[in-house]
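Listing S7. Sequence submitted for prediction.
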Amino acid sequence: MRITLNWLKKFLDTSNSLEEIIDGLFKLGLEVEETIDYRKSHAPFIVAEITHAEKHPNADSLRKCKVNNGKETIDIVCGAPNARSGIKVVLAPVGTSIPLNGMVIKESSIRGEKSQGMLCSSEELCLGKDSEGIIELGDDAIPGMSFIEYAGLNDVVIDISITPNRADCLGVYGIARDLAALGLGTLKPISIPEIKGNFNSPINVKIENNEECKYFVGRYIKNVQNQVSPTWLVNLLTLVGQKPISAIVDITNYINLSFARPLHAYDASKLKGDVIVKRAKNEESFPALNDEVYELTSQMTVVADSEKAHAIAGVIGGKESATEFTTKEIFLEAAIFPRETVIASGRKLQIDTDSRYRFERFVDHEFTKTGLDLAAQMVQEICGGEISEAVEIGSSKYEAPTIVFEASNIEKYLGLRLGCPEIIKIFESLGFKLDKTDPLKVTPPSWRQDITIKEDLIEEIARIKGFDQIPELPLPGMEKLPQSAMDNRKRSYSVIRKICASRGLHEAVTWSFMHSKIAKMFSDEEHIKLINPISSELDCMRKSIIPNLLGIIRNNEARSMFDMCVFEMGTVFNDSAPDAQPQMLAIARAGMLDRSHYKGQNKYDALSVKADLIAILAEYNLAENIRIDLEVPKYYHPAKSGRISLGRDVLGYFGELHPKLAKDMGIKQNVAIAEVFVDKIPLPKSKAGYKGVLKLSDFQPVERRFSFIINDEVNVGNMVIEARKIDKNLIKEVKLFDYVTSLPILKEGEKIAGLAVTLQSDKETLSGEQIEGIYKRIIESVEKLGAKFREV
């Protein structure tokens, strides 16, 4: 909602500064998005007159102009096609900064001719989109005078974000009312015109169904002279982003923006018979004011004459009855259309208008006729004409709820101690009616249809009194709550994120959706389809985060950004049931680990992401208990990947991306990926910490190395696990130290795997018998897997 400071002061008598008003708006919950002070940005621009213009001697598209700036005549080279002798223009003197691009004007030579300033277009001054020609001012413009004074731009634009419940503040008057209640001025009363019609309207109004329209009122105005709006109205609408069209249309827009009261004006000569509010005909064609043609349905409400529809109720008017500069007779209407009706029509046809925006929230029922009469009076003042008696049907009465309110609620809910007189004063300043009994009986005004329960009234007290005045008091019973509201599982998510970040991975946050075509590349299973996706490329829920990370890598490749390491932890959606939406960690490393003359060019591979997974599992003392096999999803490289399991639970996968899939996705780099089902990682039971207390032994460790001949069916990882199981207290470490694939003694398919086993006791020095007994059991256990002990 864009307003101007001068517009606000038309309804608010205030001496407060701009800064105090903006601060007050924030306190009221009306967040200010931006302010544009034209008093500063446009102050240097002045009115000037081109006294002589001729073709530039060295450029066909340029004009050489003599310009009177009120003090002297200066030379300016201008490229505008409308630069000619005798017109009044806007001059940017030397040293002026242009609002459009910040360019500072300097005295220069253009194709050999001196130029001492710049003549400006509407676009360059951010006052419109016309960039073809320079601004032409009226005959009343005097060279040398301030442009902002002449154009009425000595003003400040304030852009306010209005929450959906505050439809009353979609008009400048409503904002002024709130500021007055806060104490930042006095609200000026609206001068309601008493219009005595000179004749009866030749157009009457009918409503076929009261559910389609609660109230409809109109006035016929004849002998009008539609014209360009007065300068003050043109400038006001332009400043807030509205395009001035003609006086009649601009007046309806002005009333709408001032009082949040949508209106519509029909060219009465184009209407056939009376106005009827009814359901549209199926497949009825409707040419709208936005130059689009819509196909209506019988579920939509329209304002029609005896032949056709001329407006979609509360949404948009029709082109065939639009007012023009030749219009002599108009029918001006205001109505109360149910918000459900307006919402349904607007959504179905995908039409967004200021009128729809206000009807969808709510409009002040009891201001309907007042808004119409204010507009009719303005039409008569600007365009002349004679106004008819009002024709109306239905009722504009708003049945407001009466809310029983106890003053003690303020201290109970806000912690503020306010006396009943102060509470009454706040409510009355907001226009509420009160029965000053105990408890109070409060009736909100017709413009506050969002007030329905006592909690709404408490919020109003908090807004006006100030949220910063609410004391910081602990909620009752909070002392019984545990210090942390985060359980161990959620805490583990944070721990895993920190581990990933410490390993050089950058965290990403991607959509929970993906394109169904991409989803099929990763899984043949059905994905959850979205009925109303935010984009055609995000039409199903993800079963894996890996495709999203690959999309990041691909998009960065297209911008010559390589060597990426990213991770994301989030929800995947295997089904619509809550228990089928686990947390997953996804990792992707692409490109080179090192690009160095000294270290060579090492690519990220399956072992890179395996190390990431091992680091995470080591945090939970699980790294030594896992098993690795080759059962992986189809998007992993079949020979460079693995599945990590703990008992019967699959904890995750790691490996390189399948080359065919990388090609299909347009990824040129090598990519290593990994996934972890973080909810399946068992959490430690001990409260002492994940790894317990560090204990160092004073006794000497013993290491021995074993050599085994294995074939492709023997998993080295399982050999390590089986060896470690023999004695968990004495065996401190088992690791692979050698792996040989070609020796003369080996048969085809055979390999040599060497295991190094470290023994150490925390209580005593190990005897030779103890050591030999453990070694013997290790050999027997590993040989059961199919390995053959090799004597060296």
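Caption to Listing S7: primary sequence and predicted structure tokens for the chain studied. Residues 50 and 524 are 74 Å apart (CA to CA). The chain has a mean pLDDT of 90.
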